[in-house]
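A reminder from the course coordinator: this example appears on the midterm review sheet, so study it carefully.

Given structure:
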């Protein structure tokens, strides 16, 4: 399936806790974010940006379309267009992250 035009794609900002990389995660989080941003999940309707989450006041997930932030209801409506729901979508991305973490540490 062809990718949607950028202005119609869901932009997903995922703030990763350093702890997801283990007790020494703070030492690796920036490098890991760079690593995963070079090979982000491939969905024709979404694009991703992974950044370190140093400020716990900021949400882990942030969604927008064409630079306009979306609330959970709008995200759910958008994802429904692609026969998925928000919790399944987030779970799929988190599973992919777990796989990429393994690859990241296996290469060093």
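Designed residues:
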């Amino acid at each position: 399936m062809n990718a949607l035009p950028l202005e119609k794609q869901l932009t997903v900002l995922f703030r990763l806790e350093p702890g997801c990389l283990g007790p020494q995660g703070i030492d690796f989080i920036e490098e890991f974010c760079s690593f995963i941003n070079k090979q982000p999940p491939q969905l024709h309707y979404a694009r991703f940006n992974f950044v370190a989450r140093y400020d716990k006041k900021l949400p882990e997930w942030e969604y927008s379309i064409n630079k306009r932030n979306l609330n959970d209801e709008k995200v759910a409506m958008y994802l429904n267009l692609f026969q998925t729901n928000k919790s399944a979508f987030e779970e799929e991305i988190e599973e992919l992250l777990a796989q990429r973490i393994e690859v990241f540490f296996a290469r060093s």
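Residues 6-106 form a domain with the Glutaredoxin fold (CATH 3.40.30). The mean pLDDT is 94.
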